[in-house]
Specification:
- This protein has about 450 residues and is mostly helical.
- It has one domain: MFS general substrate transporter like domains (Growth Hormone, Chain: A), CATH 1.20.1250.
- It has 20 helices and no strands.
- The longest helix has about 35 residues.
- The C terminus is likely disordered.
- Belongs to the major facilitator superfamily. Phosphate:H(+) symporter (TC 2.A.1.9) family.
- It is a multi-pass membrane protein.
């Protein structure tokens, strides 16, 4: 169940990434949103006469939801990059990605609200069998995820195709100018000549020898850094259940806590983390991305994440497992701040800037899919680690394994920093056409500058 949505995301990134270049960004943008809508609602309507049937149905709709989310990655990043200019390009894409932080906070608030309402209407004790109203509660929480997609669907459908795609892929400069007229609300005469000359047709296909010679290193760098980041980032998210239990009521001590109350506390801790680390990290990235540059932010973010993981991992067995839980929680939250102010944001931005317009969503989808493959590895690793930390093990063994895991995550961050510094190409202050590295003559260069 942990990995099925991530598997859907991988498939969605690959399929919608390719469709975004073949059919158009706008043409498939709404389809991805529809899949997210159907997946969210379907999760709530997971049906069956047995627990296994319900979980199978839930798994199917989570997979469908993952496909929609995966499609949204390359399309959202590319559309924003193609609408922005080179001076604010990074900040605009980072601002789009930063909404993920508010989504995390909103999901926590929704969960807390539903739990509070149901707890007051249907009080129950922990030893009671799972009541029907608890079954309704988790379904409602999942279905409410469809609300933002419904709200944004109309505006997505009203967006014109990006001018860069229309001009550089469809080779229709006049239509691109008309679309820009709608977006910018300026006369057509100020955008293009009456009879603009069409751009040159594509010179080489995807995955050709020339493609790999020009863009192979960039594709490898984007994919590798995203892969390393997602191993660490998703491991940290999945291990929250191991960390949060220290702050929850101790049922073994005889504390009476309902399922709603326990879930409320988990959501509350998630909201606190979102407010002091996740959201500030995203905003810091928006502020710094065009001032400092992508490579520096990504490398420093990996480095600071490694320092924090080593700081909480090396002394974990002798210190953190018994003392200063709040300080540990604060440092743990810093890993999300440095990730969001660093590689979690930049790995989303850079693939949308480096590649030619006719390959842009495809390459972004490939890089994202490789990243989510790392997330699947972390999910499987988390499952294995959870099973290896059985109740019969003493606390010292559990602490030793957690220590090793945190140190490994720090080591992966060091590798991510090295790959970033050695292979990732800086894109700050450059237009998309300059980053393509294809302007071999003055005519192509002039066509590229019109979008700067």
């Amino acid at each position: 169940m942990l990995a099925v949505a991530l598997l859907g995301t991988v498939i969605g990134q690959l399929i919608f990434g390719r469709l975004g270049d073949r059919v158009g960004r706008r043409g498939v943008y709404g389809v991805a949103l529809m899949l997210m809508m159907v997946g969210s609602i379907g999760c709530g309507f997971s049906m069956g006469t047995t627990r296994g049937c319900v979980l199978a149905s839930l798994g199917f709709f989570r997979f469908l939801l993952g496909v929609g989310i995966g499609g949204d990655y390359p399309l959202s990043a590319t559309i924003m990059s193609e609408y922005a200019n080179k001076r604010t390009q990074g900040a605009f894409i980072a601002a789009v990605f930063s909404m993920q932080g508010f989504g995390i906070l909103a999901s926590s608030i929704v969960t807390m609200a539903v739990c509070k309402i149901f707890a007051r209407i249907y009080p129950s004790l922990p030893e009671d069998p799972p009541p029907k109203h608890a079954d309704i509660a988790w379904r409602l929480i999942l279905m409410l995820g469809a609300v933002p997609t419904v709200i944004t669907y109309y505006w997505r459908m009203m967006m014109p195709e990006t001018a860069r795609y229309t001009a550089l892929v469809e080779l229709n400069v006049l239509q691109a100018a008309r679309d820009m007229e709608r977006v910018l609300d300026v006369p057509l005469s100020q955008i293009a000549e009456d009879h603009p000359s069409p751009p040159s047709p594509p010179s080489y296909p995807l995955f050709s020898r020339q493609f790999f010679r020009r863009h192979g290193r960039d594709l490898l760098a984007c994919s590798a850094t995203w892969f390393l980041l997602d191993i660490v980032f998703y491991s940290s998210n999945l291990f929250q259940s191991k960390i949060y239990h220290k702050f929850l009521p101790d049922l073994d001590a005889g504390t009476v806590v309902t399922a709603f109350e326990a879930t409320f506390e988990v959501a509350r801790l998630q909201a606190i983390k979102a407010c002091y680390s996740t959201i500030p990290g995203y905003f810091a990235a928006v502020f710094l991305i065009d001032r400092v540059g992508r490579v520096k932010i990504q490398a420093v973010g990996f480095a600071l994440m490694a320092i924090v993981y080593f700081s909480i991992g090396v002394p974990y067995k002798k210190y953190w497992k018994d003392h200063t839980d709040k300080l540990f929680m604060f440092l743990y939250g810093l890993t999300f701040f440095f990730a969001n102010c660093g590689p979690n944001t930049t790995t989303f931005i850079v693939p949308a800037e480096l590649f030619p317009a006719r390959f842009r969503t495809t390459c972004h989808g490939i890089a994202g899919a490789v990243g989510k493959a790392g997330a699947i590895i972390s999910a499987v690793g988390f499952l294995m680690a959870s099973h290896s930390q059985d109740d019969h093990q003493n606390e010292d063994k559990k602490a030793s394994k957690m220590r090793v895991i945190l140190i490994i995550l720090g080591g992966i961050c060091v590798v991510g920093m090295a790959v970033t510094m050695l292979f990732v190409r800086e894109t700050v202050g450059r237009s998309l056409e300059e980053n393509e590295n294809e302007d071999e003559d003055e005519d192509e260069s002039a066509q590229g500058k019109c979008f700067s």
